[in-house]
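Narrative summary of target 7.
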Amino acid sequence: MPDDFVVLITGSRDWTDREALHFAILETWHDALTEGRKVKWRHGGCKTGADALADELLRQHGFVPEVVEADWATCNGPKCTPRHRRRRIGGGTFCPAAGLHRDARMVDMGANLCLAFIMPCIRKDCRRPQPHGSHGASFTADRAEKAGIPTRRFTPEAGSK
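Modeled conformation, tokenized:
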């Protein structure tokens, strides 16, 4: 039997197009089945947006996706220092780079395909020229492409690319 077909799903926290995400999952699943491959799904475990929708839809179809959580409590990147930590509303601190470290780890784990659901950046403090895609999902899609992982990008205004 052929190797498992690993699909990395990444997306913006404010992604709401359930239909586009569902179609991409079903299309990918169908293509893998046609090749006689079992699909393994992976996402970053955000509680909102594309990760949450993907998790819900995958579980409805009987899949148990691999969830790679960000370690917000620990600074673990090469440039992480205690000074860069940010304060949480209600107390405590977190590492603002933890999501990107998790995204890099997911790509480094390897995949056969990356599905990226990218909304426009809406950060008020963003210094990048507008318009551009949300930072985490764009970072993950770019890193996947550089790693040689075929990547399909979905945006609300353009559908898939």
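Residues 18-34 form the longest helix (17 residues).
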